[in-house]
Amino acid sequence: MIGHVLTVESCFDLSETEKKGSIQASGNIKLVLQESLKLAKINAFKFLNEEQKQKLQNSAIHMHFTEGATPKDGPSAGTAITTALLSLVMNVVVPSNLGMTGEISLNGQVCKIGGLQQKLIAAKTLDIVDIILPYANLGEALNLPQQLIKGLNLYFVTDYRQIYELIFEQQIANNNYTINKIKNGVYETDQNGTKEQIQSTINY
């Protein structure tokens, strides 16, 4: 009933200068997670300026998934890998109390994940307050116990651009997107900078 939080680390590998533009990974990752690395690189590239693109193309990058003794597979780390890669290349620190889960597609769509309740419990045990989730999991989240949701800020997104705006531009919504949220048990939606409170409680 309790999940685990996967920490994603990234750095420029100055010892692998002959492998420019490559991303190496460690941490006992399996095939599907390796595919997520490729998708993350493609999606991250879309948000970089020309200087940052050159930096990505001319650098060897290493990404590590902690707890190497545990095999890791599945696509739900896609958004986190993309964010870790952007954080490194853009030199922007991601807050330590921020978590996310979601499969990412080739065109940046954030897809549904399984085990939502277990993942939220795991995040809460590590005092992770802000969590970005696929919009496709909103219905499931609305039926979770209030005791679990209390104290968490959940953001539901359909496209990675929304995650980019939340983290790297520090804005919740713009003219093109609506952000659905559950903040401390209250379901809200932000659209065009305005906030609408939809219901006062989720589920007791």
UniProtKB/TrEMBL annotation:
Q: Which GO terms describe its biological process?
A: protein catabolic process; proteolysis
- This protein's source sits in the domain of life called Eukaryota
Q: Lon proteolytic domain: from which residue to which, for each copy?
A: 1-170
Claim: Protease is one of the keywords in the record: yes
Q: Which InterPro entries match?
A: Lon_proteolytic (IPR008269), Lon_Prtase (IPR027065), Ribosomal_Su5_D2-typ_SF (IPR020568), Ribsml_uS5_D2-typ_fold_subgr (IPR014721)
Question: Which SUPFAM superfamilies does the UniProt entry name for this protein?
Answer: Ribosomal protein S5 domain 2-like (SSF54211)
Sorted alphabetically, which keywords does the UniProt record give?
A: Hydrolase, Protease, Serine protease
What Gene3D superfamilies does this protein's entry cite? Answer: 3.30.230.10
Task: Give the family from UniProt.
Answer: Belongs to the peptidase S16 family.
Q: What is this protein called?
A: Lon proteolytic domain-containing protein
Q: Which organism is it from?
A: Paramecium tetraurelia
